[in-house]
Amino acid sequence: MNRQTQLNILTSLAVMEDAPVIPVIVLHDLAHAVPLARALVAGGIRMLEITLRTPIALEAMRLISHEVPEAVVGAGTVCSATDAQAAQDAGAQFAVSPGYTSEIGRVCREIGLPLLPGVATASEIMHAQDGGYTELKFFPAAQAGGVAMLRALAGPFAQTRFCPTGGISIQNAPEYLALPNVICVGGSWLIPAEALAQGDFARIEALAHHAACLQRT
Ligand code: 3PG
Description:
alpha/beta; TIM Barrel; eight-stranded parallel β-sheet; 11 helices; binds 3-phosphoglyceric acid
């Protein structure tokens, strides 16, 4: 699939359905960007959330988009309309935000950037739904009620699908993925800081492979 085709068909749902886990990536060294993306893709994970938490994040998105065409670069920690536009300009094909604002929702729709907005309460889900968003990140998942909260939200919000993120690990991911309203989970455990610092991309590939093999309902 070439990049143009992906751009034409990519939706928030497709981003969530691609693999059981969306890796949450914090990059401090630009030299890690391409080998990390290659390791994750080799392990079976190609939707990559590069968080806008470090000064090199946009440049990393540009590099990965250019050098690793099998990867689908996304931007995480998108906190404003300006972030969304900058991320798209850097090659991001989807955006993930820790919360939801009408402005982010409007701009992402206008520029055609699939958005997974973060929510943690019923009111936030209703706000996102008002903006047309029903595929949502549940954040911070463990701290905001975890599996029990997601079960409770399934009653009033039967159409809503979640990507819980925050406090998820290879150990507890299966409990989340077993829920009918969870399509995938997000997590940083695939990219341990020490593995990145040591350039141990074989370990990251193995973690990605393990994550890609998690079962979903
Ligand atoms: C984040 O935004 O940092 C994500 O929630 C990742 O959380 P984690 O490190 O607990 O996976």
